[in-house]
Amino acid sequence: MFAVPHGPSWLSRPRVLKGAAALVVVLGLLMWWLKPFATPEPRGSVIFSTGVTSGVYQRYGVLLKQDLARALPEVSVTLRTSEGSPENIARVATGEADFTIATADAVAKYKADHGAGADRLRGCARLYDDYAQLVVPKGSTIRSTADLRGKRVGVGQPRSGVRLIADRLLKAAGLDGPGVLTADPVGIDSAPGLLRSHKLDAFFWSGGLPTLAVEELSDSFDIRLVPLEPSLIAKLHSTRESASRYYRSAEMPADAYLKAQNGKAVSTLAVANLLVTTDRMDPALAEGLTRAVIDSRDSIGNEVHPAQLVDLRTAIYTDPLPLQEGAKRYYRSVKP
Predict the structure, then answer these.
(1) Average pLDDT per 10 consecutive residues for the chain, totaling 336 residues
(2) Would you call 125 helix, strand, or coil by DSSP?
(3) Residue 151 in contact with residue 195, Cβ under 8 Å?
């Protein structure tokens, strides 16, 4: 007589292997049966409208495209440069592009002007803030916006977000009349070179901090950032323009541009950037792209610092646009 061992050790190895094989077959059949009911992988091609070649939008778009290739492998992304937010909004609203980044004030103006397709615009995420920047040579006598009188000033390209802000600031400062100053319609791709060659006395820019083009200018040419007085922002808020309510008083941190600020914060205004699409976009694709934008915050932020400020807790607030249905699905899926 001998005792039968207790526990699983009495099972034979062939019997265990057969059981495991059967389980694998059952699981495989189950996955095959459920596959038709799973959410299909987003696929297709989209056009993403970005910005000027040396601006934050374009750099953000290039890096996001790389991340989307991994997150949405069946989606082909084409980047298109633009002059900035107003052009971006018009492209998406009219179907010339599928996604873009644009400032809230530009979106509000397009809606207030009843631009073509404005009612179809939808938001996917609030991203990071743009900061208005007035750049002058370090030795310049320009200390405030009032000192721009009689100067040659870069105000941004006609369809750019910086042009919207520059025009409003100059109007608030009483500098919008004919002959008060020379307004040069140049953007961040050419304004730094014109300032360095003394063909501009100053230029406006609006972008995330730091903007590479301004940072590179400060490395090769001594510049200074002129404070934008809080009273100007107050005047903007007092106008009847709905877009102006999206501006807020802010400070550029002392370390935004180390060589240009001498360790001092600079008063300015800020406005939020939004990830924008329309109600025509496939919700599954909008959901996937929204997820990729939030998930890529750190990887993109290593090279484009404003992206570090993308925050899931605030991303849902896309005023003045309602959320796109796919974006709603994403935020519901990550709600604690």
Answers:
(1) 46 52 54 52 93 92 95 97 97 98 97 97 97 98 97 97 96 94 96 98 96 95 96 89 91 95 95 98 97 94 90 96 98 90
(2) strand
(3) no
Predicted confidence at residue 11, as pLDDT, reads: 45
pLDDT of residue 4: 43
Query: How far is residue 336 CA from its own chain's centroid?
Result: 25
Q: Which residue, chain included where needed, has tokens 């992304």?
A: 77
Classified as helix, coil or strand, 56 is: helix
Per-residue pLDDT, 27? 55
CA distance linking residue 248 with residue 233, whole number of Å = 7
Tokens for 315, please give them.
């991303």
Bridge partners of residue 44, in order along the sequence? 75
Q: Could you tell me if 228 and 134 are in contact, meaning their C-beta atoms sit under 8 angstroms apart?
A: yes
| The model scores a pTM over 0.70 | yes
**Rounded to an integer, what distance in angstroms lies between the CA atom of residue 244 and that of residue 235?**
9
Q: What is the CA radius of gyration of the chain?
A: 26
Q: Which two tokens stand for residue 222?
A: 């001594």
Alpha helices by DSSP H, 80-186: 85-93, 104-112, 161-172
Determine the Cα–Cα distance for residues 62 and 103; give it in Å rounded to an integer.
19
How far apart (Å, rounded) are the C-alpha atoms in residues 160 and 88?
A: 9
CA 118 – CA 280 distance, rounded (Å): 12
Instruction: State how far the Cα of 76 lies from the Cα of 68, in Å rounded to an integer.
Output: 9
Number of residues written out for the chain: 336
**Extended strands (E) in the chain:** 44-49, 75-80, 99-103, 121-137, 152-154, 182-184, 202-207, 223-225, 248-252, 266-278
Cis-peptide into 320, omega within 30 deg: yes
DSSP-assigned letter for residue 200: -
CA–CA dist 32, 23 (Å, integer)? 14
Q: What SS3 class is residue 192?
A: helix
| Sign of the torsion angle spanned by Cα atoms 299, 326, 58, 266 | negative
* Among 269, 321, 45, 53, residue whose Cα is nearest residue 164: 269
